[in-house]
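Query structure, 424 tokens:
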């Protein structure tokens, strides 16, 4: 926004707003008992959308006045958007506010206010003191984190303009990015990694990963994609708002094809798997569980059917008494959470004797007994097949899905098990 766009009328209005902000900050400084409430009230005020009267003064004064902030849609123009631009082009107007915020640095909402009002100023005004620059840039990352979480909790995007500026005008613009210390650059990228799905900027992901800074522990963690996925997985574990979770899952398929280290892939897989169970620790609703299953199956198709079958078996049979559960095959490829569930189930049912459920994991031997409608068994588990109810389907193993499995269960329910006895 060019400086010439600020007309005398709009400048006078913004100066008046600045004076009101100063007064509230001074009151907060002078009243320790009211400090938090006053700062919260000020944060709420500058986050408000500009009303029609204010728009008329700011945007339609003499000589067409100023245009809306570049990062903000006209209908959602907020006070902090205009003030952030104003303090860049008229730095002396915001100096007193900045001094007061520094005195209130450790207070709640101080970093919120700083991030909203001075995020552009920090990158446009030359600061020669490295300690001050470190303090201000660190406060910006902290304040941005706080306001983005407010958007998450309310499932609104009132601070999207701040996110877009930090992503497109800072992270993807090396000239501005290099103005802040390297450590803060890394913190900024980790912050943006957590919220890039929420603000639907996945179209910038490829460029974002190319610009990712080098971390000192890269040899242990991996490349940019590994850092991004780790932050994303941690973010998913913290989300409690159902629509936000679903929004993240709707974008997560862009991770398909990323080159990740095994530890990172396992971490993501375990994270997604934690949302597929109706129980703790997440207690997700059905729609979230289905979205997590879809994401898990899309990103990790290998082992898809064993995952679903084992999950279904445990949900159906775990509450029953007298059933001994045995797992054969290679279960090491399953997520750690599922391996623990398997181990617990086997340990708790090891002394049961009424029925034994044997589940083959990561084994290809079952193909011979199910493939192409062949009405025979192979030499696989012949001893264990004694008195086993057999069910044959024409579908090939890769096509054996939920419908075929449900058909098998229904068939089993309709049978009378005699174990070699004759009906009397």
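Result returned for the query:
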């Amino acid at each position: 926004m060019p400086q010439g766009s600020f007309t005398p009328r709009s400048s006078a209005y913004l100066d008046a707003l600045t004076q009101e902000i100063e007064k509230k900050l001074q009151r907060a400084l002078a009243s320790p008992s009211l400090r938090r409430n006053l700062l919260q009230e000020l944060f709420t005020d500058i986050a408000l959308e500009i009303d029609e009267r204010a728009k008329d003064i700011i945007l339609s004064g003499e000589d067409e006045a100023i245009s809306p902030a570049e990062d903000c849609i006209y209908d959602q123009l907020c006070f902090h958007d205009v003030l952030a631009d104003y303090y860049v082009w008229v730095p002396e107007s915001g100096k007193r506010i900045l001094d007061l915020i520094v005195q209130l640095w450790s207070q709640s909402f101080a970093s919120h206010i700083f991030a909203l009002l001075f995020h552009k100023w920090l990158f446009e005004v030359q600061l020669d003191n490295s300690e001050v620059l470190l303090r201000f840039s660190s406060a910006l990352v902290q304040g941005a984190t706080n306001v983005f979480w407010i958007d998450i909790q309310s499932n609104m995007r009132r601070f999207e303009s701040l996110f877009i500026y930090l992503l497109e005008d800072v992270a993807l613009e090396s000239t501005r990015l290099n103005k802040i210390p390297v450590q803060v650059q890394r913190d900024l990228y980790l912050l943006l990694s957590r919220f890039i799905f929420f603000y639907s900027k996945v179209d910038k992901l490829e460029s974002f990963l190319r610009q990712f800074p080098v971390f000192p522990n890269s040899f242990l963690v991996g490349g940019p994609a590994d850092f991004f996925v780790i932050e994303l997985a941690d973010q998913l574990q913290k989300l409690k708002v159902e629509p936000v979770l679903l929004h993240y899952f709707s974008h997560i398929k862009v991770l398909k094809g990323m080159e990740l280290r095994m530890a990172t892939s396992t971490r993501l897989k375990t994270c997604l798997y934690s949302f597929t169970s109706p129980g703790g620790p997440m207690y997700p609703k059905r729609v979230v569980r289905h979205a997590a299953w879809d994401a898990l199956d899309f990103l990790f198709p290998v082992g898809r059917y064993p995952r679903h079958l084992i999950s279904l078996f445990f949900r159906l049979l775990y509450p029953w008494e007298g059933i001994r559960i045995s797992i054969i095959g290679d279960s090491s490829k399953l997520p750690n959470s599922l391996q623990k569930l398997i181990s617990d189930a086997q340990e708790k049912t090891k002394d049961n004797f009424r029925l034994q459920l044997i589940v083959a994991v990561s084994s290809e031997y079952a193909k011979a007994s199910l493939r192409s409608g062949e009405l025979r068994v192979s030499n696989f588990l012949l001893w264990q097949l004694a008195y086993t109810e057999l069910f044959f389907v024409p579908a090939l193993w890769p096509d054996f899905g939920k419908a075929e499995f449900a058909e098998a269960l229904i068939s089993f329910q309709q049978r009378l098990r005699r174990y070699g006895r004759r009906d009397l």
